[in-house]
Amino acid sequence: MGDAGAAFASTIAYIIATLVIIISFAKISGNSWKDILLIKKQDFQDYKNIIFKIRRRILDNVFNIG
Predict the structure, then answer these.
(1) Domain that holds residue 26
(2) CA-to-CA distance for 30 and 63, rounded, in angstroms?
(3) pLDDT of 27 strictly over 70
(4) Is 31 within 8 Å of 22 (Cβ atoms)?
């Protein structure tokens, strides 16, 4: 199978590793896999708040040069 077989084996290994990480994180955090993988409306609000905080910090640093 050569290169195609190696690529297939790598893909399977990455999928298994990803599943192990997701399952482990779900058990440790107490969240369901849906909570971990599915994007919710609140996630967008959180990202928006983070972007505004970063933007504010950058603008404060630019206009308040010592």
Answers:
(1) 2-63
(2) 44
(3) yes
(4) no
